[in-house]
Specification:
With 292 residues, the chain is of the alpha/beta class. Helices cover 42% and strands 16% of the residues. The strands form 3 sheets. The chain has an 8-stranded parallel beta sheet with strand order 1-12-9-8-5-4-3-2. Helix 3 runs parallel beside helix 5 and helix 5 crosses helix 7. The longest helix is centred in the first third of the chain and has 22 residues.
Length: 292
């Protein structure tokens, strides 16, 4: 049976009445309302998720500095994101739950939609230098693994893979894609080849993409890398820089196709709530024995 990751943390926080229009997005609540983050993690665990992804996706030293948080304070908040997920996992009881520390792309910290475009004009070396301090802090907080997620182009993937190689914490890497290409327009086969043969990357796949793009991407990731594959798409709605538009086309039943294509870990991303994850769990596991 597949493992199941959670859904959209920000989506669930907004459903609880929080305005996340701030540039820090859900990471702002690491300062203002950390108990709410724990509550959402617990809701996803109660829905049947095995893995919680932390609230550090859009957290950055620059972003916290703009809110008056100094370097040491930012490090403490990054560690808090892992601790909150760990607290929720402990409170869930029963079988073991896992914590994946989110390492979002450089574009997320710009808070202008760049994570859906890539091609920031930075070299691989510059991207390594930017990502390394945050990844080091998150790794030091003791997550089970690092989630290198919503990566829009292969250059940034190369930088991230290099950064995590010496941290002693396993990682997965997921691209944000458009059809058979990265958001930056590179062939997806070339992008997946970046992580082939890299032992620190224990799973590879896609996230925050249209559900319809998942089956082909899963099959390709498996063929190119030989690694376990992960897929957690968004609702299929479109981000216009201000909000999500269009109808949702996320169907829990579709997750069976992702698993059939080779996915070992499935879940959801933006606009996918705890109810959707509960339905996904039922679709891929039915009344079978949960993961232990």
């Amino acid at each position: 049976m597949p493992w199941v990751t959670d859904g959209g943390l920000a989506t669930a926080l907004e459903a609880r009445g929080h305005d996340l229009s701030d540039a820090l997005w859900s990471a702002r609540l690491l300062v203002d309302a950390p108990a709410e983050i724990t509550a959402v993690h617990r809701a996803f665990f109660a829905a049947g998720a095995d893995i919680a992804i932390t609230a550090s996706y859009q957290a950055s030293f620059d972003g916290f500095a703009a809110h008056g948080v100094d370097r040491s304070g930012a490090e403490a908040l990054l560690r808090r994101s892992v601790g909150l997920a760990r607290d929720a996992a402990a409170a869930a009881g029963g079988r073991r739950r896992w914590v994946a520390a989110s390492v979002g792309p450089y574009g997320a910290a710009l808070a202008d939609g760049s994570e859906y475009r890539g091609r920031y004009g930075l070299s691989v070396a510059a991207l390594r230098a930017w990502h390394r301090p945050r990844a080091e802090v998150l790794a030091s907080a003791g997550p089970d693994l690092l989630a290198l997620e919503t990566v829009p182009d292969a250059d940034e993937a190369e930088a991230l893979v290099d950064v995590v190689a010496g941290l002693g914490v396993p990682a997965w890497l997921t691209y944000s894609i458009d059809g058979d290409r990265t958001r930056a327009g590179q062939p997806l086969a070339d992008a997946f080849s970046v992580v082939a043969g890299r032992p620190g990357i224990v799973a590879v796949g896609v996230n925050c993409c249209a559900p319809a793009d998942v089956p082909a991407a899963v099959a390709l990731a498996r063929a190119v890398t030989g690694k376990p594959v992960i897929a957690y798409p968004n609702s299929g709605q479109s981000w216009d820089g201000r909000g999500w538009t269009g109808p949702s086309c996320f169907s829990a039943a579709d997750a069976r196709r992702w698993v059939a294509a080779g996915a070992r870990i499935v879940g959801g991303c933006c606009r996918v709530g705890p109810g959707d994850i509960a339905a996904l769990v039922e679709a891929v596991r039915g009344s079978g024995t949960p993961r232990s």
